[in-house]
């Protein structure tokens, strides 16, 4: 990845609806070479997908909650069952395996407190869930940020 590829990636993260001609103009290429670069970035998996960023408030999401989850055991089948259950819960918008005092950190959204309580009951019904700790997000300071594009010396 050279500096032009990185510039293209930054521009696409800012607004993926830009035309190839607009991107090409901003990076100093003609449209055809720019389109080839974008296609190569897509085919290599660097560009994973394109999506719209939605306004939570406008679609009725009033709460964001971070939930720490500890499991009773760490057998492969229990982990698989928990992770599949989380995949099937629409309220969970991200789930991370973490180190430390708990096993998973979930980011959960809900219309309101009653909706979150309903979600919590689903989570508590899972066999392998030992403990749940909830942190209500009061205000988002930063979010939906563009990913940094590191130099090749930082890549794996």
Automatic annotation (TrEMBL):
<dbReference type="InterPro" id="IPR036390">
    <property type="entry name" value="WH_DNA-bd_sf"/>
</dbReference>
<keyword id="KW-0804">Transcription</keyword>
<dbReference type="InterPro" id="IPR036388">
    <property type="entry name" value="WH-like_DNA-bd_sf"/>
</dbReference>
<dbReference type="GO" id="GO:0043200">
    <property type="term" value="P:response to amino acid"/>
</dbReference>
<feature type="domain" description="HTH asnC-type">
    <location>
        <begin position="1"/>
        <end position="62"/>
    </location>
</feature>
<dbReference type="InterPro" id="IPR019887">
    <property type="entry name" value="Tscrpt_reg_AsnC/Lrp_C"/>
</dbReference>
<protein>
    <submittedName>
        <fullName>AsnC family transcriptional regulator</fullName>
    </submittedName>
</protein>
<dbReference type="InterPro" id="IPR019885">
    <property type="entry name" value="Tscrpt_reg_HTH_AsnC-type_CS"/>
</dbReference>
<dbReference type="Pfam" id="PF13412">
    <property type="entry name" value="HTH_24"/>
</dbReference>
<dbReference type="GO" id="GO:0005829">
    <property type="term" value="C:cytosol"/>
</dbReference>
<dbReference type="GO" id="GO:0043565">
    <property type="term" value="F:sequence-specific DNA binding"/>
</dbReference>
<dbReference type="InterPro" id="IPR011008">
    <property type="entry name" value="Dimeric_a/b-barrel"/>
</dbReference>
<keyword id="KW-0805">Transcription regulation</keyword>
<dbReference type="InterPro" id="IPR011991">
    <property type="entry name" value="ArsR-like_HTH"/>
</dbReference>
<dbReference type="InterPro" id="IPR019888">
    <property type="entry name" value="Tscrpt_reg_AsnC-like"/>
</dbReference>
<dbReference type="GO" id="GO:0006355">
    <property type="term" value="P:regulation of DNA-templated transcription"/>
</dbReference>
<keyword id="KW-0238">DNA-binding</keyword>
<dbReference type="Pfam" id="PF01037">
    <property type="entry name" value="AsnC_trans_reg"/>
</dbReference>
<dbReference type="InterPro" id="IPR000485">
    <property type="entry name" value="AsnC-type_HTH_dom"/>
</dbReference>
């Amino acid at each position: 990845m050279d500096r032009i590829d990185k510039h293209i990636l930054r521009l696409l993260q800012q607004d993926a609806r830009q035309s190839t001609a607009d991107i090409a103009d901003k990076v100093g290429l003609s449209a055809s070479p720019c389109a080839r670069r974008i296609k190569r970035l897509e085919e290599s998996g660097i560009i994973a997908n394109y999506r719209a960023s939605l306004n939570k408030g406008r679609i009725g999401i009033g709460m964001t909650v971070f939930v720490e989850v500890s499991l009773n055991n760490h057998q492969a089948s229990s982990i698989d069952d928990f992770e599949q259950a989380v995949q099937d819960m629409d309220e969970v918008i991200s789930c991370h395996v973490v180190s430390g005092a708990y096993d998973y950190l979930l980011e959960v959204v809900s219309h309101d407190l009653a909706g979150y309580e309903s979600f919590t009951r689903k989570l508590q019904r899972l066999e392998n869930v030992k403990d749940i700790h909830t942190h209500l997000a009061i205000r988002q300071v930063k979010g939906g940020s563009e990913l940094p594009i590191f130099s090749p010396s930082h890549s794996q």
